[in-house]
Amino acid sequence: MTTTTDTDTLLERIALLERRVAELENHPAQGIEDRVALVVFSGDLDKAIAAFIIATGAASMGLEVSMFFTFWGLSAVKKQKIFNGKDLLEQGFTAMLPGKLGDTGLSQMNFFGAGAQIIRSLMKKHDVSSPEELFALAQELGVRMVVCDMSRELLGVKDAELVDGLELGGVATFLGDAARAKVTLFI
What we know:
With 187 residues, the protein is α/β, with parallel strands linked by helices. Helix content is 47%, strand content 15%. The protein contains seven helices and five strands; from the N terminus they run αβαβαααβαβαβ. A five-stranded parallel β-sheet has the order 4-3-2-1-5, with helices on both faces. The longest helix has 25 residues. The termini are far apart.
């Protein structure tokens, strides 16, 4: 009798597990897709390089990639500084912040810009694409690049200061991408 009870218990457990597996197969993680969502918060050269390497690597693997540039990360998607048409505070931010990716420094050991030049030299020596080349590759691979509209307004960044082909959006835009992503990173 013990054998029958043990067999019945085991069969019940197997049936329960099969039902649970079927439920999970029918309702996988809601909306998770083959995508990567990045928040680019830092305006440091080394962090921008990392963000673009991850973005281009993921895109080349067939993942959909979105990059959300906010606050100091806007430096990675600017092409120039514009002072006209800005109030005093906005002009101050413009003066203090890099005007484009090529003007950004390192987060560590920047040494008044010498560190950034050394990293760029080492990248060239080792045939690593420059940050500007990585940015262009990201665009070519279809990486979605969204500029935080709130950060742009707070820092007084005009549309004409931004690289062409970028989207403007808010936190809801990023969260919509992140909610469906397998990987979400904050850089």
